[in-house]
Amino acid sequence: MHKIYPILILLSMACLPTLSQVNKRDSLIQQLGKSKEDTAKVLLLCAIGEATENNEPETAKQYFRQAGLLSRKLHYDAGEYKYLYLYGNALIIQGNYDSSLYYQQQALAMAEKMKDSLSIGISLFNIGISYREMSSFEKAIEYCLRGRKIIDELGNEKLEMQVDDALQVLYYNRTNYDQAIVYGEKAVALARKLGMKEYLGKYLINVSLSYQNRNQPKKTMAVLEEALKIGQELQDNRILMVVRQNLAGAALKQHDYALTRKYAEETLDLSRKIGSTDGETTALRTIAVTYLQEGKLATAKAYAHQAMALSKTWNYKVEELSLYRLLSGIGYAEKDLEHGLLYDDTMYAKLEGMVKEVISKQSADLEKKYETEKKESRIHQLEAEKTVQDLRIRQKNIINYILIGGAATLSFIALLTYRNYRQKQALQQKRINELQTEKQLAATEAVLKGEEQERTRLAKDLHDGLGGMLSGIKYSFNTMKGNLIMTAENLQAFERGIDMLDSSINEMRRVAHNLMPEALVKFGLDTALRDFCHDINQSGSLKLQYQSSGLENVEIESNTAITVYRIVQELVNNVLKHAGAATAVVQIIKNETGIAITVEDDGKGFDTAILQRSKGIGWSNIHSRIDYLNGKMDIESTPQKGTSVLIELPV
User: Fold this and answer.
1) Helix, strand, or coil here: 509?
2) H/E segment holding residue 599
3) I need a labelling partner for 342 at 20 to 30 A (CA). Which of 145, 388, 506, 650 fits?
4) What is the pLDDT of residue 425?
5) Residue 184, pLDDT above cutoff 60
């Protein structure tokens, strides 16, 4: 299930009061009818746009354009600068990141023309935010740090507050959630201190994302509820939309699909009202996910196709990938393997294209930087020793960038190769013919039940009989030790005897546990297998990973659980004895069709034809238990490439 990632809000660098937006806008519009064609009207038009942009971004853009036209007519550079960066912010609210970047770059050029350090710092930061929303994090960091350096020198708490929020969003996008929380809580604290509720609502939304990803549900719900109250108080549809979108994500994580759909439908209405196409796309996909989980496949497909149409229209590449994956899941749920595979292949093809595009772009940027550094190195070779040392440090950084880029490329290639391998495995059909008659199966059942009963009896006899006797002997020896006077040599021999007795008791307990694991009887199959794999790991003889799905809170019939446990135990023992493997994986999946057991290792492998002639007790026991449960087994092994065993049991 995909997570629903709410929109991260970009804040303009203006400092707005905490009045209701509707009342503020109406008041400003009344003033507009009485204003003259001067610089005051420019600022008034910008203020009306700012009060409108969250609920009606298209209307806000009209006011900003009027402000820009009037500024050019009056040759009012400060007004034209304000128009450019506010218009860029409105575009980001609508999800139009490329156009937003263009206007923020124009704003920077105007700020440099005015030689206004504050405006330059703000524009650098806004450009960084635009790059952040376009997932160009290297450039985002570069511009944000340049802007922050200028803004920090001004000592303005209102600007610092917005800088902290922008940094929290940037660290969130880089999945550094702890650092994001640090900056987010700073921004929230400053917004409270300054009494700026509109900003506080947005900062609470942003920090809720990091809380959610750090699995802090109480903090997540607390900040979202506070943000919701602020949005209702300010009548800010943008805040209300994003809060509900985040609440939908939290409900989805808790598998409450009815509540998820309620919030998503509210998000959808608000997104359409304010013209947020990315919010609309995400809401449609969320609704489709809830219907998929409820088995309403036709309705889920309809919503998914609506979302896909919007994604393609607005070029939301990441959302498009998520929707292809969702449509693939719907196809598989409908047992439409053809369309399921088609959507899967389309998703991976587009993912590969995006990866290649990113790698190509990064490589070009790194190459350009490298060439630039080489030219600068030639120019500055005649300068002082300190300058030469600085250039060498820069060159080393460029080489590090190239190495990081190469490592990233190799990682992507490895990911794609692994994905292809897993896909081939998942599509293989594994069948074996049933060779046992009902009479043979009944005989096998009797033998297996008798064997397990005997194991249970022996385990109890060892534990309760021999175990009690050995423990009694140990107690008697310890009592005698306190009452006897012995030489140092005799005392040492006596203590060695007690140690050997301890070893005997531990060995007896190990044998009793192997005969009938106590965890299997008390806690069930999942816990018993997890303990078994953990014990193998602790022994250091094999790195064994255990994975399970669908076994939580599921009661499995005793004979079936014992049989599955013995099958896994025997397969792992074969890996230890014959495979020469360093790592192995045990995977148990319980679904409506039965239980699937997969055991894989990276050992030396073998020719599977040998098994046709094998008369070993281990393989014979495995076959008997599989036949008892009417199951089937498929073995795939290649010399020097390991072995994979898949067993399907229709229980």
Assistant:
1) helix
2) strand 594-601
3) 650
4) 76
5) yes
